[in-house]
Predict the structure.
Amino acid sequence: MTSPTPLDKRDWIAGIEKGLRILEAFDTAHTRLNASDAGKLTGLTRTAARRHLLTLAHMGYVGTDGKLFWLTPRVLRLGQAYLDSSRLARIVQPFLQRITTGTQEVAYLSVMDDDDVVFIARSGANRAMNTGFVLGARMPAQVTAAGMLLLAQREPEDIAAWLETHTLKAYTSYTVASKERLHVELMRIRHLGYAMSEQQIDLHYRGVAVALRDGKGHVVGAVNVTMPMGHESSEDAVARVLPVLRETTHAMRNLL
């Protein structure tokens, strides 16, 4: 998780914070909100929530029928602006293409955002995965190779604190939903230097991930490939793709 940038109280603009909180209140469980619901979800009064919603509607970020409000496609401009301006994604893109050529698998660059892993660059053909790992897609860190890899790079005490404060959800019968088992797996990943996830979010698919480090050795993201499991064993899959992942991420270090 990225630490918030220190901010002097004099520089704090509460209106921006409240407006963004309103936008973030919409999700799969809250696709349409009235002012009262938006206020409850964001800690604002109904009147304040309504004013923010009306302002966002005026700007084109939400639609409304006068009572309910919903997000419009204009919101995607915010995410696209990040993808378009990300120096990291631009640098990594040709290297992801190298990984795809070397493994014949879809390759991704991902970063952590709070408790989710977000895919910010990719190379390879689309596949019919339920998870839909398109640019900007986000997944719970616990169920992806990239997410577990990034969690495992934290200090042991930070990993323990993260596990203590989070509820683990099972997405398939293979999902590691036990905190004790996940802790053991994260320590194993930390020792091995790579992560593999099988069928934790999407049946019959596996992922393998390694850390992407800059020239100073700091972890700036994870590079991973995903693949259908087919008849290839876990050991054979790792032996096939891991050398390519490691070689390519090592080649990137002095560019970051």
Q: What stands out?
A: Confidence is low (pLDDT under 50) at residues 128-132.
